[in-house]
Amino acid sequence: MSDTIDPDDLLGKAYDPRIARRLFAFALPYRQRAIATLLLILVATGSDLLLPKLFSLAVDEVTLERRLSMLNLLGVAFLITLGVRFLASWGEFYQISWLGNRIVFDIRNQMFRHLQTLNVGYVDRRGVGAIMSRIQNDVGVINEFFSDAVAGIVGSATILAGIVALMLWTNWRLALLSFAVLPVMILFMRYWRERAIATYRATRRTIAIVNANLAESIAGVRVAQAFTREPANILHFERVSRDNLEASIEAAWLSSLLFPIVSLIGAIATATTVYVGGQLVLGETLTIGELVLFIALIDRFFEPIRDLSQQYNVLQAAMVAGERIFEVLDVEPEVRDKPGAKPLPPIDGRVDYNAVRFGYGETEILHDIDLHIAAGETVALVGETGAGKSSMVNLLLRFADVWAGSITIDGHDVRDVTQTSLRSQLGVVLQDTFLFGGTVRDNIAFARPEASQAGVEWAAREVGAHDFIIELNEGYETEIQERGVSLSVGQRQLLSFARALLADPRILILDEATSSVDTQSERVIQEALRRLLRGRTSIVIAHRLSTIREADTIVVMDEGRIVEQGTHEALMEKGGRYFALATARVGVTGDG
Amino acid sequence: MKVALRIFSYVRPYWRRVIVLYVALFAALGIQLAIPLVLANAIDDGIVARDASLLVRAALLIVGLTLLQGLFTFVRAYVAQALAEQVAFDLRNELYAHLQRLPFAFYDRAQTGQLMSRATEDVNNIRSMLVLSMRALVLAIGTLLAVTVILFRIDARLAALALAPLPFLIWYSVRFGIAIRPMFLKVQQQFGVMTTALQENVSGFRVVRAFAQEQAESARFESELEELFERNLRAAQRWSFAYPMTLLMSGLGLAAVLWFGGYQVVGGAISIGTLVAFSRYLTLLNEPVRWLGFVVNRIAKAIASGERIFETLDTRPTVTDRPGAIALQQPHGEVRFEEVSFTFPGARRPALEEVSFTARPGTVTALVGPTGSGKSAIINLIPRFYDPSSGRVLVDGHDVRELTLDSLRGEIAIVHQETFLFSVSIRDNIAYGREDATAEEVIAAATAARAHDFIDAMPEGYATEVGERGVTLSGGQKQRIAIARALLRDPRILILDDATSSVDTETEQEIQQALGALMAGPMRTSFVIAQRVSSVQEADQILVLEGGRIVARGTHDELLRHDGFYRDMHELQRREEETAGDGLSASGYRLSANGEARGS
């Protein structure tokens, strides 16, 4: 399913009671307020229709009975009704807005919290943009569902029913005659709607192309200038932009058509009423006041019909949005705390992989892994992409669960303890350094928000980040911009080291970055790594030779198995897989 | 006001349409104002005076007049919308063309998101403001004046009473339109904050999970949501009151007609038809007056948008062809820097200070040095992406500022550190900037760049789309396409900006070969930025930069003879290799993800 609401979906899906029921469930906690709001809608609509009725009574009074006391009474009634309408619609609008926004608040909150329980694989599969658009846009549509569709349909239906009833009650023959134009009106609206959907789809499609082109042009402007493509780009943009202009003008034509035709149909009804109603007044079966009331009501007749068609669109959009929201909410977390899971007690840091088997879907990735890491030991995982190194650390972090076998920390199976207690004793440095918006300090103290300034500075000093941090404009209080772009790759790595160091985990998991940095930064990073790894159990997916060499144990993996294990010297001497990996480089060096 | 006038200057070329628009608008308005009179006439002379023939005439008139009114309304609505679309189209194109020409210095400080929103949201604000102000504003004022005049002419006393709430209504409506805007801006702002919080959480989900920060994140997000809710509610408090309030005020006018007018009818001062006509006219006023607040709101919004758009349009491209610039023709490719100093816009320290060197045609010049030492500044000055603060950059003896940009950049090709590919076919990406290239030329370039094999293996070959809707390429594949792109240009001057640094090692070797092919072209002057000694040691000259100055220059062997950065770098890299073991002697130093060491 695409991430924007496609009009095709709108046409396909009408009202889905299953989704609607679940959407209404969100309003359940506020049912008293919702019922009060419905009452307010009824009062507002009722008083709105009472006004022309009072006016028509006044017209009759002054033309027929001519009682000034009655006129005074009607005047007072008119003013009171005005006041009631004012208060009721004020309350109605405010309550509808409160409800819509509150429900949106609840859904977003619930989705966000739910998302935090899903395992990392889910986000990888769905993609950041797709998840964002569900929480951002689809939930926004639900606000419209409650305020425009539900409340709006109730409002439009009530006023329509009120008008019809009032007209029938006043003079049913004349009423039926006025309704004669309705089939024409409905047919036209249907025709217009179909045309409009097609046209608006075209404008949205073309503007999407324009925007995509624009975004790419801005992102790639340096390449465009380097390759002198600007004139061709400008021409191309004008072409896609013109497609949009043409579609928009077509849409303008259509939207300009709606109002005149609807008022023409209305005028035919009015004219009929004036002619036939006028005859009836002459025949004294209708009063002038009633005729005036009829004309006023016909005027108001078409608005709710038009609104209903609009509200129907919102209803359909909400069904699509609702489905996409529930799709997220219905995803079961793959990794859950066992019932009665206990927190992991403070650990020494011994890690054991016992006959671990694991995979994704049908494919087994790790086969019978046995690996025993003593507390305080550094293990370097080495092997080709897809050898299973990432799976090894993901399982230890319990981002996923083993198929068979077990992983224990100090003898505790990771599945038997709570995830929070497990991860708060593990430290992680990921390959792609992710920095959050906020200050440098906030980023270092990410896992220990309560950390003191001294603590943060200590961690930064230890990894050699302090020097460049104090060089920044506002030191530790410098805001990190757009995903940390203002810092160099090396600096970002150092910050993530400091972040891990401040957390002071017994067990550290490190996925070394592959991107290269300049020689000086490299030196700083190597030193920082040494300090980071010292004195704790470390599992490193290693790329740096220096890191690998200094590891207590090198574990060479191939196709989901451990094929060799030992120190650098021992493995080089052995002349096996590790030796082959380490020496493979020589033959391929082009210019070395 | 200046901004508003400037916005309307985009309408000026279409003044004929504006005339059509207003003729139609006033015609429709006039007809609309006639209908209540027809009704009043039908009641007074038809019904009260019992003349049935008048009823037929009134009915026909109503239909006829509405038909005519509809025609004019259609013309007015269509012309206004089409005109606004046209202006939006013009504005967007102008903005785009301008953005294409703005120099690197501009993009160094601009945020992509903001530029995007100028060309989308801001243009859109102006479009909708034009429709509204050209139509609704004039219509509102026209209706107000006309109705006031008509009512006063029918009965001045009743008119004065019925219209009494009107000034207050207008004042309130306009004030509301102004006051609500900052409240909605605050809502939008908070929505942005919430979106950022969400985006960071979703993008950084591994970090969040790994550091067990789910609870803290949820609490943070909830507080942002709470704030959004509060701000929405504050705006709702305001507008939920405003609309009923305007209804109340216009209702009061009607009450006056009913009550006081009723007395007058009873007293015989006015006819019942007049009373009805009064009520109809007051109803006609409702809509335009309510629009007033909305129009004011939109105008304020459009002016803010206009300011942003014009700010961009008024940014003069600092790097443009000088008057009398000459075209660079069949150059030899000699590049010379003469005492060049340069500071990146907005930077505190200069990136280059009095740098001089010459790259002879057909030679390779390597640039080494720590981050921020001025390497990028040098390669950015050659294609004139920036102009130096002092000194001269010469190509074949011509100051680059004396050459036309197209002819200069036409002779240069760059392979960037981070490859940018466009969401078009692979073929179009390779032929970027050389749309006239034949299929054979494209394939030849791809083959030389070691890209042909993997392109050929794709389901649609060279026609395969790249990017979101197409295939995802690995870093190495992208890099080789970028190399093919540079090759196809057959440039006299070639710039390689650390082209292998962000590539996974799987294809490093192939990229090295591709780069070799690229540099080996006939009489090509090449500039190479690299972190590895092994990548630069073959260069004809190596420039060592530190703090914006060339601190050493020479060949690999010459530089090794002296103490300094280059020897340090060489030593460090050599030591690493040695400690790695006997097997790793030559140039590699990293054991990479797939087991191949990386380096070179």
The end-to-end span of chain A amounts to: 50 Å
Largest sheet of chain A: 6 strands, mixed
Backbone shape of chain B:
elongated
Lateral arrangement of strands in the main beta sheet of chain B = 6-7-8-3-9-10
Strand-residue proportion of chain B: 5-15%
Oligomeric state of the chains in view:
heterodimer
Beta content of chain A comes to: 5-15%
Major β-sheet annotation of chain B: 6 strands, mixed
The geometry of chain A reads as elongated
Helix content of chain B: 55-70%
Describe the structure.
The complex is a heterodimer of chains A (592) and B (600). Chain A is of the alpha/beta class and 592 residues long. Chain A is 66% helix and 11% strand. Chain A starts with 6 loop residues before the first helix and ends with a helix. With 600 residues, chain B is of the alpha/beta class. Chain B is elongated and about 120 Å long. The interface between A and B is large, with 163 and 168 residues.
Write the layout of secondary structure elements.
The complex is a heterodimer of chains A (592) and B (600).
Chain A lengths: L6 H6 L4 H11 L3 H35 L2 H50 L2 H7 L1 H43 L1 H8 L2 H38 L1 H6 L3 H53 L5 H42 L21 E10 L2 E11 L4 E6 L5 H8 L7 E6 L2 E2 L5 H5 L2 E4 L8 E2 H5 L8 H10 L3 H6 L7 E2 L8 H15 L3 E5 L7 H15 L3 E5 L3 H6 L2 E6 L2 E6 L1 H7 L2 H12 L4
Parallel strand pairs in A: 3-10, 3-11, 6-9, 9-10
Antiparallel strand pairs in A: 1-2, 1-4, 4-5, 7-8, 11-12
Chain B lengths: L1 H8 L5 H34 L3 H50 L2 H6 L2 H43 L1 H7 L2 H39 L1 H6 L3 H54 L4 H42 L21 E8 L9 E8 L4 E5 L6 H7 L8 E6 L2 E2 L5 H5 L2 E4 L10 H5 L8 H10 L3 H5 L18 H14 L4 E5 L10 H12 L5 E5 L3 H4 L4 E6 L2 E6 L1 H5 L4 H15 L10 E2 L5 E2 L2
Parallel strand pairs in B: 3-8, 3-9, 6-7, 7-8
Antiparallel strand pairs in B: 1-2, 1-4, 4-5, 9-10, 11-12
Helix pairs in contact in B: 1-10, 2-3, 2-5, 2-10, 3-5, 5-6, 5-10, 6-9, 7-9, 7-10, 9-10, 14-16, 16-17
